[in-house]
Design a protein that fits this description.
Elements lengths: L6 E14 L2 E14 L3 E5 L6 H8 L7 E6 L2 E2 L5 H11 E4 L11 H12 L3 H14 L15 H13 L5 E5 L7 H17 L3 E5 L3 H4 L4 E6 L2 E5 L7
Parallel strand pairs: 3-8, 3-9, 6-7, 7-8
Antiparallel strand pairs: 1-2, 1-4, 4-5, 9-10
Helix pairs in contact: 3-4, 3-5, 4-5, 5-6
Length: about 240
């Protein structure tokens, strides 16, 4: 299914160079693509191809060496560090391979954290966090700390935390990479449902071709270049 909503994210001529000893190493260059509202894009490629770095740039966590990223009409390269942080809090939801839950806080407090950082009252933030815990099927685990939760539960909590701010874009970096196959399938199914229900634009980096095949479009990053491939063409 190829959706044709308005363009939410536009990437033009993106390049990222790292200094390696006395030489410059170009991780990728001249990357250009766009993501439309409501699309789920899979991002595939070998380890070290630059998928995580690309997601960091798209989420205003890192800057490219050249090129531009536009969120609607906003040029991310023009944002000051403070404005970039505000942009991330309001428009982007991040889910990583490792959940990064704060161990000293409960599931409810972890999910509420982005709203508390935004300045919402504790009562308001925790009420919304409770609603999101219900959304990911973990209302009964609200007062458990992360160490008392399974890997799949931790990742579902991380997903609720990513989406509590009602972002327009979800960036997920190997969100099922640390999970067994059955749990991974359940977490990916949850991501897919929330993507649809909240009309997100999602970019999901994954080594799991079965998951990538369930995306609307797939981008392959290899040898510093990006190309679109048909989801059904990926190996089973």
């Amino acid at each position: 299914m190829h959706l044709t909503g308005e363009t939410v994210l536009r990437v033009e001529g993106l390049k990222k160079v790292f200094r390696s000893g006395n030489a410059d190493l170009a991780l990728f260059e001249n990357l250009s693509f766009q993501a439309n509202q409501g699309e789920m894009l899979g991002l595939v490629g070998e380890s070290g191809a630059g998928k995580s770095t690309l997601l960091h740039i798209l989420g205003a966590l890192d800057r490219p060496s050249a090129g531009e990223v536009y969120f609607a009409h906003l040029r991310l390269g023009s944002l000051s560090p403070d404005r970039a942080a505000d942009f991330r809090n309001r428009e982007i939801g991040f889910v990583w391979q490792f959940h990064y839950l704060l161990p000293e806080f409960t599931a409810l407090e972890n999910v509420a954290m982005p709203l508390l950082l935004r300045g919402n009252s504790r009562q308001e933030a925790e009420k919304e966090a409770g609603r999101w815990l219900q959304e990911v099927g973990l209302a009964g685990r609200a007062h458990h700390r992360s160490g008392e939760l399974s890997g799949g539960e931790q990742q579902r909590i991380a997903l609720a935390r990513a989406l509590i701010t009602r972002p327009k874009i979800l960036l997920a970096d190997e969100p099922t990479g640390d999970l067994d196959s059955r749990t991974a399938d359940a977490v990916f199914a949850l991501i897919s449902r929330l993507h649809r229900d909240y009309q997100l634009t999602s970019l999901i980096a994954t080594h799991n071709f079965a998951f990538a095949r369930r995306c609307d479009r797939v981008l392959r990053l290899q040898q510093g270049q990006i190309e679109e491939v048909a989801p059904e063409s990926l190996p089973a």
